[in-house]
């Protein structure tokens, strides 16, 4: 339990004042997987009501505005209201006068705003609690880091220098250029209560991977979103830029955002029954696999996400599971001890929204338990070549269609969330199609310029 978790907001505010804190960085997730925020004085930042325009859920990742029943000229882009979650208040040691706090967003009537990703995950976590489970999640991310050249325009891998010339995974030779970043990042995340348990180089120039310690579902997503934001901040301090874009190079694996998960009851891992993988675990896997096609839009939310989709680069293309098998969508892990039995869902990219991906997976698994579902047989060998497993949507357009039509998601999270998220993804698709329509590609020039 964090130092502020058992205290109310007023008590936390007084504690921070006594410790000399002057400023609050309030944070809240948008739909695209980023943390947005404000910088406020202490009393305002740790107050019970912080107004935000509802446009926060009407912006793309590049701040294109799309209109919806929730956020529009008709309702004047009215305010929603943020309330800091006391459990998330933490000192930022690299900013001695400042604490950070994550907000829950409420409508004017005081109910949690369905469009807010944190609301969605709370819904799934509350369901788990009602069923007597404590869900625990651990997220790991792949990321590319480059030195920033202020004259480079636009910023892209082709115009920037990676932080290491080598491209080997698990390399000790590449570490000197990265060690200072690794050490500082791990120290900072430990100090804010989200430990990074490992970091190593990955395939690609400037590619690294880091893994976060497991935590209860909401805290795990909070920590994951902060880790991405705080790593970007650290890199900016050092003249670098970190990108979690799903696919940067067609010849290399993309950036994954794999999610490890288990259910606990009374301090015991419910995925192990003393002699083997429990029936609870099997039903949880069955539910998640059953709903995985509908969850693709949450795990792969952008046009670029689907460039990463390639089983030869260890990204699943079907709803499969296997024992310690990285070709499967869900990898069953029972080592180093059965106490750590868990599933690793390998579908999400690093560009996914942690709240939405975790919330969707948890809800799917719980539905499998409630319905008493049985999973398909564990895969043997390359899961991608097994035709018995359900194929997953191969484009964002297809993924959004399956998401929108999911009766399970509508029953679990409500029409308002499903309709708004669908609209947000279609806005992204519309922007992509408009751009495509106005381009003449290099392929066309090479093929037609001289021959026609």
Topology readout:
Layout: H1 9-18, E1 23-29, E2 35-41, H2 42-45, E3 50-53, E4 79-84, E5 90-91, E6 98-106, H3 117-130, E7 134-147, E8 161-162, H4 175-191, E9 196-201, E10 207-212, E11 215-216, H5 217-237, E12 240-243, E13 259-265, E14 268-269, H6 279-299, E15 321-323, E16 330-333, E17 342-345, H7 354-371, H8 396-404, H9 407-413, H10 415-437, H11 442-448
Parallel strand pairs: 1-6, 15-16
Antiparallel strand pairs: 1-2, 3-4, 4-6, 5-6, 7-8, 7-10, 7-11, 7-12, 7-13, 9-10, 13-14, 13-17, 16-17
Helix pairs in contact: 3-7, 4-5, 5-7, 6-7, 6-8, 8-10, 9-10
Describe the fold and architecture:
The chain has eleven helices and 17 strands. It has helices at 9-18, 42-45, 117-130, 175-191, 217-237, 279-299, 354-371, 396-404, 407-413, 415-437, 442-448, and strands at residues 23-29, 35-41, 50-53, 79-84, 90-91, 98-106, 134-147, 161-162, 196-201, 207-212, 215-216, 240-243, 259-265, 268-269, 321-323, 330-333, 342-345. The strands form two sheets. Strands 7, 8, 9, 10, 11, 12, 13, 14, 15, 16 and 17 form an eleven-stranded mixed β-sheet that branches. Strands 1, 2, 3, 4, 5 and 6 form a six-stranded mixed β-sheet that branches.
Could you write a compact summary of the structure shown?
The chain is of the alpha+beta class. The protein has helices at about 10-20, 40-45, 115-130, 175-190, 215-235, 280-300, 355-370, 395-405, 405-415, 415-435, 440-450, and strands at about 25-30, 35-40, 50-55, 80-85, 90, 100-105, 135-145, 160, 195-200, 205-210, 215, 240-245, 260-265, 270, 320-325, 330-335, 340-345. The strands form two sheets. Strands 7, 8, 9, 10, 11, 12, 13, 14, 15, 16 and 17 form an eleven-stranded mixed sheet that branches. Strands 1, 2, 3, 4, 5 and 6 form a six-stranded mixed sheet that branches.
């Amino acid at each position: 339990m964090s130092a502020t978790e058992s205290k109310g907001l007023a008590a936390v505010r007084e504690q921070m004042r006594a410790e000399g804190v002057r400023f609050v960085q309030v944070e809240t997730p948008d739909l695209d997987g980023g943390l947005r925020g404000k910088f406020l004085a202490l009393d305002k930042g740790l107050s019970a009501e912080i107004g935000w325009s509802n446009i926060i859920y009407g912006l793309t990742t590049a701040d294109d505005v799309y209109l919806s029943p929730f956020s529009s000229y008709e309702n004047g882009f009215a305010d929603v209201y943020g309330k800091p979650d006391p459990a998330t208040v933490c000192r930022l040691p690299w900013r001695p006068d400042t604490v950070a706090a994550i907000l829950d967003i409420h409508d004017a009537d005081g109910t949690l705003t369905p469009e807010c990703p944190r609301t969605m995950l709370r819904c799934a976590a509350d369901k788990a609690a009602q069923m007597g489970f404590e869900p625990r999640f651990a997220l790991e991310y792949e990321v590319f880091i480059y030195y920033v050249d202020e004259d480079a325009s636009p910023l892209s891998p082709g115009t920037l220098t990676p932080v290491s010339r080598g491209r080997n995974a698990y390399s000790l030779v590449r570490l000197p250029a990265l060690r200072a970043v690794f050490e500082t990042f791990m120290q900072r995340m430990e100090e804010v209560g989200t430990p990074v348990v490992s970091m190593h180089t990955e395939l690609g120039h400037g590619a690294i991977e880091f893994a976060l310690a497991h935590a209860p579902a909401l805290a795990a997503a909070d920590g994951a979103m902060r880790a991405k934001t705080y790593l970007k901040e650290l890199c900016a301090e050092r003249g670098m830029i970190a990108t979690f874009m799903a696919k940067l190079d067609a010849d290399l694996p993309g950036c994954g955002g794999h999610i490890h998960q288990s259910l606990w009851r009374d301090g015991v891992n419910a995925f192990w029954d003393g002699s083997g993988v429990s029936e609870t675990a099997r039903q949880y896997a069955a539910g998640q696999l059953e709903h995985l096609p509908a969850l693709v839009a949450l795990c792969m939310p952008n046009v670029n996400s689907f460039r990463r989709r390639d089983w030869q680069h260890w990204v699943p293309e079907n709803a499969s599971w296997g024992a310690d098998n990285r070709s499967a969508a869900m990898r069953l892990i029972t080592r180093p001890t059965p106490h750590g039995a868990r599933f690793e869902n390998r579908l999400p990219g690093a560009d996914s929204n942690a709240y939405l991906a975790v919330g969707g997976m948890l809800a799917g698994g719980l539905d499998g338990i409630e319905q008493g579902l049985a999973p398909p047989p564990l895969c043997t060998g390359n899961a991608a070549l097994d035709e018995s497993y359900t194929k997953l949507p191969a484009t964002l357009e297809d993924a959004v269609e399956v998401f929108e039509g999911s009766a399970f998601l509508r029953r679990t999270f409500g029409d308002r969330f499903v309709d708004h998220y669908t609209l947000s993804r279609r806005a992204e698709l519309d922007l992509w199609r408009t751009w495509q329509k106005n381009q003449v590609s290099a392929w066309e020039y090479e093929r037609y310029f001289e021959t026609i």
